[in-house]
Specification:
This protein is mostly helical. Helix content is 44%, strand content 0%. The structure holds heme C (HEC) (5 copies).
Amino acid sequence: MRSPLAGLAAAVGGALALLGCQPSLPPPPAQPIVFSHRIHAGKAGIGCTSCHGFAERGPVAGIPSMQRCEGCHKFVREDPASKEITAQIGVLRAILAQGTVIEWARVHRLPDHVYFTHERHVAAGIRCQECHGEVEQMEVMHQVSPLTMGWCIACHKRKIAEHPAGRAHLLDCWNCHK
Ligand code: HEC
Ligand code: HEC
Ligand code: HEC
Ligand code: HEC
Ligand code: HEC
């Protein structure tokens, strides 16, 4: 049975959620050119790790190189149904022709004292979307999870409850603070 206090806390939490009082997330930074995940990962159906392959192999997921963009955009030069998309591809092709490198602004950033690694989470079967939201619907990439210590620990606790063997250390300070 739930205690009256838990009921009260849930009611207050619910009321705050209704009022939209969630901890505020950083707004998306300005990017040098338009790049739509909805079009690439959604409409064109390109897999996440086809552009962010290091997520399976190491701490950092990585941002695709200009060569990776060029590999497709040598051939993908227009969208016959959209002048706007064709114009945006034109902007990219001009940059590729000049040979300059696009400096994407970083969207997610943990403080330096925190250790996070993609590899272990991806290997444990956690989908990108569980932490990054429905990216394939995002016109502009933005942060959807708070990335606070409480957020990391809440999931680690859930995962220990689901499957305790070999996971007790997931709550140790040194696991996330090296
Ligand atoms: C065609 C290549 C491509 C595909 C496919 C792609 N991405 Fe990206 N992704 C990028 C580029 C380029 C950026 C940097 C520009 C931006 O932030 O929009 C980026 C940025 C991101 C970021 C933010 C990085 C930061 O700075 O914090 C996340 C998170 C991300 N992608 C997740 C995903 C997920 C999840 C999928 C699959 C649903 C996916 N991406 C599919 C190219 C791609
Ligand atoms: C695997 C193939 C592939 C790769 C890799 C790829 N693109 Fe695309 N891109 C496409 C396709 C296909 C379209 C057109 C989709 C449509 O019109 O429905 C497109 C459309 C675009 C557009 C216009 C729509 C939009 O997103 O605003 C831009 C700009 C663009 N790509 C930039 C990039 C950049 C920058 C990179 C490298 C980080 C990149 N693309 C990598 C396949 C790719
Ligand atoms: C368990 C949660 C979690 C999962 C699952 C996850 N990410 Fe992340 N991602 C993060 C966090 C936290 C950061 C910020 C890391 C930092 O600042 O050191 C991040 C940062 C990124 C970045 C920008 C920095 C970098 O590492 O290059 C990209 C790109 C990215 N994620 C893509 C992906 C993709 C693609 C997947 C799925 C293959 C994925 N992420 C799965 C939590 C997650
Ligand atoms: C959606 C659930 C989820 C979230 C959110 C999450 N983790 Fe994890 N994390 C896991 C799981 C599950 C594992 C264990 C994987 C395994 O059993 O190998 C793990 C493992 C790790 C490991 C590797 C531990 C080892 O054995 O070496 C580190 C480090 C880590 N997490 C840090 C973080 C940090 C820091 C954050 C927040 C920024 C975070 N995690 C957020 C689910 C999550
Ligand atoms: C599962 C990962 C994880 C574990 C375990 C963890 N932390 Fe953290 N910790 C984080 C993240 C992520 C941040 C940065 C975001 C934030 O401040 O909420 C952080 C921030 C902090 C900060 C800085 C807070 C601030 O206001 O700047 C301190 C101090 C700290 N942790 C101490 C600890 C101690 C002590 C433990 C063990 C009892 C611990 N952490 C366990 C992930 C973790």
